[in-house]
Amino acid sequence: MGSTPVPQPALDRMVPFAAHPVVVGVVPGQDPLVVRTAAALASALGVDLYAGYADTTRYAVDEHADGTVDHAALDPDGAGDDWRRTEAGLRTALADALGDGPPAWHLRYLAGRPDRALTHLARAVDASTLVVGTRAPGGGHRVRELLEGSVAAHLSHHQHRPVLTVPLAVVDWKEIPAPWAR
Fold first, then answer.
1. Cβ contacts of 3-12, under 8 Å, gap ≥ 24
2. What pLDDT, in 10s, does the model give residues 2-51?
3. Pair 106, 48: CB distance under 8 Å
4. Quick check: pTM over 0.90?
5. 96 is in which domain, residue-wise?
6. CB of 58 closer than 8 Å to CB of 147
7. 6 Cβ contact partners less than 8 Å away, ≥ 6 residues apart
8. How many structural domains is the chain composed of?
9. Alpha helix (H) ranges present in the chain?
10. Which residues fall within 8 angstroms of residue 4, CB to CB, at 6 or more apart?
11. Which of 2, 38, 82, 128 has the largest CB neighbor count within 10 A?
């Protein structure tokens, strides 16, 4: 039984930048630089901005053509409305960072793995580009990235749209010792 080949990136699959929205991945407490970078790109292109947050404590029950999803809690005991507070907080943070536009912006509360959820949103709105931030610096970020992988890396390997990664912290090359110097 042969499997269907996965469509690969190609010029004929490229979504034109003009008239196609930009999708940005957002998380609570995220540096506004990521959203503002995505907004600057969307504004320069004259298109809308779709912000997507993937709640990993929930799963998608149904995905809709407009990029929204019906979702439910992974933990039946966690079936409360906590997600509504998270969504309201994200909406407030986006309004503070972006104001009334341009560009026009929309928030989509998604569920499940961030890379898959953002890919669904990008397909649904026929986005030209995805924008994500790097992980915030901190003690556990390297271990978490090793175990889970980078959302930007997963996106760049599992869908055909360009991924713009916004750096949130840089490390001076001089501060990183060579492996043989340890």
1. 7/160, 8/160, 9/160, 10/160
2. 677 777 777 777 888 889 999 999 999 999 999 999 999 999 999 999 99
3. yes
4. no
5. 21-168
6. no
7. none
8. 1
9. 32-45, 82-98, 114-125, 141-148, 151-158
10. none
11. 38
